[in-house]
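USER:
Try writing one entry.

ASSISTANT:
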Amino acid sequence: MTKHKAFSSGRGQMRLLPFLLCLMLFTGCQRKEEKPYSIHDGIRRMNALNTAYTEINHADGFSRGLALPEDGTASAEDITAEACLLVTNGQDEPESIAYKNPFVKTYQASITKIMTALVCLQNKSDLSEEFTITESSVIHVSGSSTANLRVGETLTIKDLLYGMLMPSGNDAAVAVAEATAGSVEQFVTMMNEEAMRLGCTGTHFINPNGLPDERHYTTPYDIYLILREALKYDAFREIVSSASYTAIYKDSNGVKKTQEWQNTDQYLTGERETPQGLVILGGKTGTTKAAGYCLTIGVQKSSDDSEYIAVVMKADSHDDLYTNMTTLLSKIH
């Protein structure tokens, strides 16, 4: 995809000021954490990490190519969910179109899996590589979404990504982490490093699947940054735009096994009507008691192929989530 032009130093600083002020005002949370988030600590960590990346990889500056909500951006007070954000994608100078509480601290639930997929795709070039499911992938949380994987079954990394992103398999997310980094702990470290590289100063990961934890949080703006990066990968686009997928793999005895997964995005499955003139590129849903009902998606306008990223966080129900997302997408002209 087209590389974004860097903002000039003065302009970048001016655009960064409202962003930092909003973060300081809105990233607080009423619930106590073992290590509460601090914007100052976040920026300090980001600067330290960016210095290391710059020495090795010549990392981009914090404000490069970002769509920062600012004066002149339309608010979205008609959105009943706690927060939302709508921005252009794939342009040299991306723009924020509409927002509500874009920097509020929230829980990302299974939207976490976008970062899990991103870190995997950054580190695994051969998606046909096989991985055997371990005991670590067994999820004991009641009501947890799974891809129904069993210990000893062998799947390709690509199949694991489908099982994680389509039916939102928490078990598949653990397998992706282990296949990529050797352990969940090391993979989570990589997730947090990537978040800092992208400038996600209001985000912290504890696990690869989004199971509830007070130390596992994000902001709508950071979700935009992560999805924006993930959409640069063709494999990610292929997976999240699929309505269904049939995985063919081996059980613990080496016998062929087949499983079909449905996407949790109801626009793609046809359960919800896609707003006229738009094509759903895909994204990720997320639902927990703390997070509420959440969805982030990439969309394309049919008339000119321009792309947008939309985020709706903490709606009250599935119906409310899709009503809010449709309302937000209607702001694309």
Observations:
- Confidence is low (pLDDT under 50) at residues 1-40, 42-64.
